[in-house]
Model the fold of this input.
Amino acid sequence: MLTFAAMQSTNSFEEGKVLLINKPLKWTSFDVVRKVRNLVKIKKVGHAGTLDPLATGLLIICTGKFTKRINEFMAQEKEYTGSFTLGATTPTYDLESEPVNLKPFDHLTNEEIKKATALFTGEIMQVPPAHSAIKQQGKRVYELARQGKEVVLEPRKLLIREFEITDISLPVISFRVVCSTGTYIRSLAHDFGQVLGCGAYLSSLCRTRIGTFKNENAMSMEEFEKTIAIVKNESAIKKDS
Done:
């Protein structure tokens, strides 16, 4: 985590910093980039791995010369926690769209639900959601999906190293997943519901780790903004003295 002392000693982000930010709910990943860019007053700012607006958790922000390391961070293993809601699906596989296709779920036992995780552990093939930022025909596929156009995406090989159910309070089940880059937890929720025969959608998500970086060490946007304000104030005092 970038400390106040580190920021104060350099007083500049041009040389390159790695910021750990706990992305707020309903912010896009680019909202965070734009906010950081405005606060540190440099153009070269990027993030290492998109989080959907309805997800929270760890977002790695690179500034200045460290933007060259973005692909390095993006390739690292991810850990997520969150919840699936059983008994329905949504077009976006999460709460950005309304639940449809309601089906009964209360016949499922805890054992059946936990046993289904085995089908999604190890190397698997996964089809990304139609409502995703993948490009097709020069456009983001979510733009095509919103226009009602058919989106056909090829399955991709990925690794889910750990997938555990941490709580069952039907229709909501909580989970923890450790996976390779490129994994869509929304697709995992949808596919999991298909296997159970009742449908499911992602109802909450938090990215808790990227490689060795943990969300527990991340700053909120409010904390980062306050820290930058202190740094600027200290710099102003030094100039006046």
